[in-house]
Amino acid sequence: MKLSTGEKVSQIVIVVFLGLLCVSVIYPFMYMLAISLNVGSDAAKGGVYLWPREFTLYNYEVVLGNSVIQHAYIITILRTIIGTICGLFITLIAAFGLSYRALPLRNTLLGYILVTMLFSGGLIPFYIQLYNLNLINSFWVYIIPTAFSAWNMFVMMKFIQGIPDALIESAEIDGANPVRILYSIIIPLSKPMLAALGLFTAVMHWNDWFAGAFYVSDQTLIPVQTFLQQLLSAQDISVVLGSNNNQEAIARGSMLSNVTLMSIKMATVMVSALPILCVYPFLQKYFVKGVLIGSVKG
Protein backbone atom coordinates (compact mmCIF):
# COMPACT_ATOMS: atom_id res chain seq x y z
CA MET A 1 0.00 0.00 0.00
CA LYS A 2 1.45 3.29 -1.12
CA LEU A 3 1.64 5.96 1.53
CA SER A 4 1.01 9.60 0.86
CA THR A 5 3.61 12.26 1.62
CA GLY A 6 1.71 13.37 4.70
CA GLU A 7 1.53 9.81 6.06
CA LYS A 8 5.27 9.32 5.51
CA VAL A 9 6.05 12.57 7.30
CA SER A 10 3.77 11.64 10.21
CA GLN A 11 5.43 8.23 10.55
CA ILE A 12 8.88 9.85 10.57
CA VAL A 13 7.75 12.31 13.25
CA ILE A 14 6.32 9.47 15.36
CA VAL A 15 9.51 7.39 15.05
CA VAL A 16 11.72 10.36 15.95
CA PHE A 17 9.50 11.25 18.91
CA LEU A 18 9.49 7.67 20.25
CA GLY A 19 13.25 7.45 19.73
CA LEU A 20 13.83 10.64 21.73
CA LEU A 21 11.49 9.33 24.41
CA CYS A 22 13.49 6.08 24.65
CA VAL A 23 16.75 8.02 24.89
CA SER A 24 15.34 10.23 27.66
CA VAL A 25 14.43 7.09 29.62
CA ILE A 26 17.58 5.05 28.96
CA TYR A 27 20.21 7.80 29.24
CA PRO A 28 19.83 8.49 33.01
CA PHE A 29 20.12 4.76 33.66
CA MET A 30 23.26 4.50 31.50
CA TYR A 31 24.74 7.57 33.18
CA MET A 32 24.25 6.14 36.67
CA LEU A 33 25.68 2.80 35.54
CA ALA A 34 28.77 4.53 34.09
CA ILE A 35 29.37 6.53 37.29
CA SER A 36 28.93 3.45 39.46
CA LEU A 37 31.50 1.53 37.40
CA ASN A 38 34.02 4.38 37.34
CA VAL A 39 36.67 5.24 39.93
CA GLY A 40 35.01 7.81 42.17
CA SER A 41 37.87 10.31 42.23
CA ASP A 42 38.09 10.22 38.43
CA ALA A 43 34.32 10.56 37.96
CA ALA A 44 34.40 13.67 40.17
CA LYS A 45 36.44 15.42 37.47
CA GLY A 46 33.45 15.18 35.09
CA GLY A 47 33.23 13.93 31.52
CA VAL A 48 31.78 10.48 32.36
CA TYR A 49 28.45 10.12 30.58
CA LEU A 50 27.79 6.77 28.87
CA TRP A 51 30.69 4.49 29.79
CA PRO A 52 33.29 4.42 32.59
CA ARG A 53 36.63 6.10 31.91
CA GLU A 54 38.49 4.15 34.63
CA PHE A 55 36.61 0.90 35.16
CA THR A 56 36.30 -0.48 38.70
CA LEU A 57 33.97 -2.66 40.74
CA TYR A 58 35.12 -1.22 44.04
CA ASN A 59 32.03 0.95 44.45
CA TYR A 60 29.92 -2.20 44.41
CA GLU A 61 32.33 -3.92 46.81
CA VAL A 62 31.82 -1.10 49.30
CA VAL A 63 28.04 -1.12 48.87
CA LEU A 64 27.53 -4.89 48.94
CA GLY A 65 30.06 -5.29 51.74
CA ASN A 66 28.22 -2.88 54.02
CA SER A 67 26.34 -4.70 56.78
CA VAL A 68 23.56 -2.09 56.91
CA ILE A 69 22.81 -2.47 53.20
CA GLN A 70 22.97 -6.24 53.44
CA HIS A 71 20.42 -6.24 56.25
CA ALA A 72 18.29 -3.67 54.41
CA TYR A 73 18.27 -5.96 51.39
CA ILE A 74 17.05 -8.86 53.50
CA ILE A 75 14.24 -6.68 54.90
CA THR A 76 13.26 -5.55 51.40
CA ILE A 77 13.25 -9.08 49.98
CA LEU A 78 11.25 -10.45 52.90
CA ARG A 79 8.66 -7.66 52.80
CA THR A 80 8.32 -8.00 49.03
CA ILE A 81 7.75 -11.75 49.15
CA ILE A 82 5.53 -11.83 52.25
CA GLY A 83 3.69 -8.64 51.33
CA THR A 84 2.93 -9.81 47.79
CA ILE A 85 1.68 -13.22 48.93
CA CYS A 86 -0.49 -11.74 51.68
CA GLY A 87 -1.80 -9.01 49.39
CA LEU A 88 -2.78 -11.43 46.63
CA PHE A 89 -4.38 -13.87 49.07
CA ILE A 90 -6.51 -11.27 50.85
CA THR A 91 -7.42 -9.54 47.58
CA LEU A 92 -8.47 -12.83 46.00
CA ILE A 93 -10.55 -13.94 49.01
CA ALA A 94 -12.30 -10.55 49.32
CA ALA A 95 -12.94 -10.29 45.58
CA PHE A 96 -14.29 -13.84 45.40
CA GLY A 97 -16.66 -13.31 48.30
CA LEU A 98 -17.94 -9.94 47.06
CA SER A 99 -18.40 -11.26 43.52
CA TYR A 100 -21.54 -13.12 44.70
CA ARG A 101 -24.40 -10.73 43.99
CA ALA A 102 -26.63 -12.56 46.50
CA LEU A 103 -24.19 -11.91 49.37
CA PRO A 104 -26.02 -10.23 52.30
CA LEU A 105 -25.04 -6.56 52.76
CA ARG A 106 -22.88 -6.77 49.65
CA ASN A 107 -23.66 -3.25 48.46
CA THR A 108 -23.03 -1.85 51.94
CA LEU A 109 -19.62 -3.54 52.13
CA LEU A 110 -18.70 -2.32 48.66
CA GLY A 111 -19.73 1.18 49.69
CA TYR A 112 -17.48 1.10 52.74
CA ILE A 113 -14.56 -0.15 50.64
CA LEU A 114 -15.18 2.51 48.00
CA VAL A 115 -15.06 5.25 50.66
CA THR A 116 -11.50 4.20 51.56
CA MET A 117 -10.48 4.82 47.95
CA LEU A 118 -11.94 8.33 47.91
CA PHE A 119 -11.12 9.62 51.40
CA SER A 120 -8.22 9.27 53.82
CA GLY A 121 -8.00 10.05 57.52
CA GLY A 122 -4.60 11.66 57.10
CA LEU A 123 -1.06 10.84 58.11
CA ILE A 124 -1.33 11.67 61.81
CA PRO A 125 -4.47 9.55 62.53
CA PHE A 126 -2.88 6.74 60.52
CA TYR A 127 0.30 6.97 62.59
CA ILE A 128 -1.72 6.93 65.82
CA GLN A 129 -3.57 3.86 64.60
CA LEU A 130 -0.30 2.08 63.81
CA TYR A 131 1.02 3.05 67.26
CA ASN A 132 -2.07 1.67 69.00
CA LEU A 133 -1.66 -1.57 67.04
CA ASN A 134 2.01 -1.82 68.15
CA LEU A 135 3.18 -1.74 64.54
CA ILE A 136 5.60 1.17 64.92
CA ASN A 137 9.20 -0.08 64.75
CA SER A 138 7.97 -3.49 63.67
CA PHE A 139 8.55 -5.47 60.49
CA TRP A 140 4.80 -5.98 60.18
CA VAL A 141 4.25 -2.28 59.59
CA TYR A 142 5.32 -3.07 56.03
CA ILE A 143 2.87 -5.96 55.63
CA ILE A 144 -0.40 -5.42 57.51
CA PRO A 145 -1.34 -1.86 56.41
CA THR A 146 -0.74 -2.76 52.74
CA ALA A 147 -2.23 -6.26 52.83
CA PHE A 148 -5.50 -5.06 51.32
CA SER A 149 -5.85 -2.76 48.32
CA ALA A 150 -9.35 -1.57 47.42
CA TRP A 151 -8.35 -0.86 43.84
CA ASN A 152 -6.84 -4.33 43.37
CA MET A 153 -9.92 -5.88 44.95
CA PHE A 154 -12.31 -4.12 42.56
CA VAL A 155 -10.18 -5.11 39.56
CA MET A 156 -10.05 -8.71 40.74
CA MET A 157 -13.78 -8.76 41.50
CA LYS A 158 -14.66 -7.49 38.01
CA PHE A 159 -12.46 -10.18 36.51
CA ILE A 160 -14.12 -12.94 38.55
CA GLN A 161 -17.57 -11.65 37.61
CA GLY A 162 -16.52 -11.99 33.97
CA ILE A 163 -16.03 -15.75 34.37
CA PRO A 164 -19.06 -17.57 32.89
CA ASP A 165 -21.66 -18.36 35.53
CA ALA A 166 -22.20 -21.75 33.92
CA LEU A 167 -18.80 -22.94 35.13
CA ILE A 168 -19.55 -22.07 38.75
CA GLU A 169 -23.12 -23.33 38.60
CA SER A 170 -22.04 -26.68 37.14
CA ALA A 171 -19.48 -27.05 39.93
CA GLU A 172 -22.13 -26.26 42.53
CA ILE A 173 -24.45 -28.84 41.00
CA ASP A 174 -21.67 -31.40 41.32
CA GLY A 175 -21.46 -30.57 45.03
CA ALA A 176 -18.41 -28.30 45.04
CA ASN A 177 -18.23 -25.90 47.99
CA PRO A 178 -16.92 -22.31 47.63
CA VAL A 179 -13.40 -23.33 48.64
CA ARG A 180 -13.36 -26.02 45.95
CA ILE A 181 -14.71 -23.56 43.37
CA LEU A 182 -12.05 -21.03 44.32
CA TYR A 183 -9.23 -23.58 44.10
CA SER A 184 -10.37 -25.48 40.99
CA ILE A 185 -12.00 -22.76 38.85
CA ILE A 186 -11.28 -19.22 39.97
CA ILE A 187 -7.54 -19.45 40.64
CA PRO A 188 -6.59 -21.34 37.41
CA LEU A 189 -8.58 -18.88 35.29
CA SER A 190 -7.26 -15.86 37.20
CA LYS A 191 -3.53 -16.53 36.84
CA PRO A 192 -2.92 -13.68 34.33
CA MET A 193 -4.75 -11.19 36.53
CA LEU A 194 -3.03 -12.47 39.68
CA ALA A 195 0.32 -12.06 37.92
CA ALA A 196 -0.52 -8.49 36.96
CA LEU A 197 -1.69 -7.55 40.46
CA GLY A 198 1.25 -9.43 41.97
CA LEU A 199 3.65 -7.38 39.86
CA PHE A 200 1.97 -4.14 40.95
CA THR A 201 2.16 -5.19 44.59
CA ALA A 202 5.75 -6.42 44.43
CA VAL A 203 6.97 -3.22 42.76
CA MET A 204 5.14 -1.17 45.39
CA HIS A 205 6.82 -3.07 48.23
CA TRP A 206 10.24 -3.00 46.59
CA ASN A 207 10.18 0.75 45.84
CA ASP A 208 8.54 1.94 49.06
CA TRP A 209 10.80 4.10 51.24
CA PHE A 210 8.10 6.09 53.03
CA ALA A 211 7.12 3.47 55.61
CA GLY A 212 10.71 2.85 56.65
CA ALA A 213 11.43 6.57 56.93
CA PHE A 214 8.39 7.56 59.03
CA TYR A 215 7.22 4.45 60.86
CA VAL A 216 10.56 2.82 61.69
CA SER A 217 13.43 4.35 63.64
CA ASP A 218 15.35 1.11 64.16
CA GLN A 219 18.09 1.01 61.51
CA THR A 220 18.02 -2.78 61.51
CA LEU A 221 14.45 -2.71 60.15
CA ILE A 222 14.79 -0.19 57.33
CA PRO A 223 14.44 -1.45 53.73
CA VAL A 224 17.04 -0.71 51.09
CA GLN A 225 14.98 2.09 49.51
CA THR A 226 14.83 3.94 52.82
CA PHE A 227 18.58 3.54 53.18
CA LEU A 228 18.95 4.90 49.65
CA GLN A 229 16.81 7.91 50.58
CA GLN A 230 19.04 8.54 53.60
CA LEU A 231 22.12 8.15 51.44
CA LEU A 232 20.90 10.60 48.79
CA SER A 233 20.43 13.26 51.48
CA ALA A 234 23.74 12.47 53.21
CA GLN A 235 26.61 14.96 53.18
CA ASP A 236 29.51 12.58 53.78
CA ILE A 237 30.46 9.02 52.98
CA SER A 238 30.41 7.84 56.60
CA VAL A 239 26.75 6.85 56.15
CA VAL A 240 27.89 4.00 53.90
CA LEU A 241 31.27 3.20 55.41
CA GLY A 242 29.63 2.49 58.75
CA SER A 243 31.79 1.35 61.62
CA ASN A 244 35.39 2.35 62.20
CA ASN A 245 36.47 -1.22 61.59
CA ASN A 246 34.99 -1.08 58.12
CA GLN A 247 36.72 2.25 57.48
CA GLU A 248 40.04 0.82 58.65
CA ALA A 249 39.61 -2.19 56.37
CA ILE A 250 39.03 0.09 53.41
CA ALA A 251 41.96 2.31 54.35
CA ARG A 252 44.21 -0.71 54.53
CA GLY A 253 43.26 -1.43 50.94
CA SER A 254 44.46 2.06 49.94
CA MET A 255 41.24 2.58 48.02
CA LEU A 256 39.40 5.08 50.22
CA SER A 257 40.72 8.03 48.24
CA ASN A 258 39.15 6.61 45.06
CA VAL A 259 35.64 6.42 46.54
CA THR A 260 33.29 9.40 46.53
CA LEU A 261 29.81 9.84 47.89
CA MET A 262 28.42 10.25 44.37
CA SER A 263 29.94 6.99 43.11
CA ILE A 264 28.57 5.15 46.14
CA LYS A 265 25.13 6.70 45.59
CA MET A 266 25.06 5.57 41.97
CA ALA A 267 26.17 2.04 42.91
CA THR A 268 23.45 1.86 45.56
CA VAL A 269 20.83 3.05 43.07
CA MET A 270 21.86 0.35 40.61
CA VAL A 271 21.91 -2.35 43.27
CA SER A 272 18.42 -1.40 44.42
CA ALA A 273 16.95 -1.12 40.90
CA LEU A 274 18.47 -4.08 39.05
CA PRO A 275 16.62 -6.93 40.84
CA ILE A 276 13.14 -5.65 39.98
CA LEU A 277 14.29 -4.88 36.42
CA CYS A 278 15.49 -8.47 36.07
CA VAL A 279 12.20 -9.93 37.34
CA TYR A 280 9.90 -7.79 35.21
CA PRO A 281 10.68 -9.37 31.78
CA PHE A 282 9.63 -12.81 33.06
CA LEU A 283 6.25 -11.46 34.22
CA GLN A 284 5.65 -9.05 31.36
CA LYS A 285 3.56 -11.44 29.25
CA TYR A 286 1.30 -12.20 32.22
CA PHE A 287 1.13 -8.51 33.06
CA VAL A 288 0.03 -7.49 29.55
CA LYS A 289 -2.42 -10.37 29.29
CA GLY A 290 -3.91 -9.62 32.70
CA VAL A 291 -4.36 -5.93 31.96
CA LEU A 292 -5.98 -6.63 28.58
CA ILE A 293 -8.32 -9.24 30.03
CA GLY A 294 -9.24 -6.91 32.87
CA SER A 295 -10.05 -4.09 30.45
CA VAL A 296 -12.30 -6.36 28.37
CA LYS A 297 -14.06 -8.09 31.25
CA GLY A 298 -14.41 -4.91 33.30
What is the domain tally? 1
CATH topology group: MetI-like fold
Question: What share of residues are in beta strands?
Answer: under 5%
**Total beta strand runs:** 0
Mean pLDDT equals: 83
The poorly predicted ranges are 243-254
Radius of gyration: 25 Å
CATH class descriptor name: Mainly Alpha
Distance between the termini: 37 Å
Provide the succession of SSEs. HHHHHHHHHHHHHHH
Overall CATH architecture: Orthogonal Bundle
Main beta-sheet strand count, sense and barrel state: none
Q: Assign a percent range to the helix content.
A: over 70%
By CATH, the superfamily comes out as MetI-like
Structural class: mainly alpha
What does this structure look like?
This protein is mostly helical and 298 residues long. The chain has 15 helices and no strands. The chain has a single domain (62-297), classed as MetI-like fold, CATH 1.10.3720. It is 71% helix and 0% strand. Mean pLDDT is 83; it is low at 243-254.
Short précis:
The chain has 298 residues and is mainly α.
Write the layout of secondary structure elements.
Blueprint: H1 5-36, H2 40-43, H3 58-64, H4 67-98, H5 106-118, H6 123-132, H7 150-161, H8 165-173, H9 178-189, H10 191-207, H11 210-214, H12 224-232, H13 238-241, H14 244-252, H15 261-297
Membrane topology: Multi-pass membrane protein
Transmembrane segments: 12-34, 72-97, 109-128, 140-160, 181-206, 262-283
Keywords: Cell membrane, Membrane, Transmembrane, Transmembrane helix, Transport
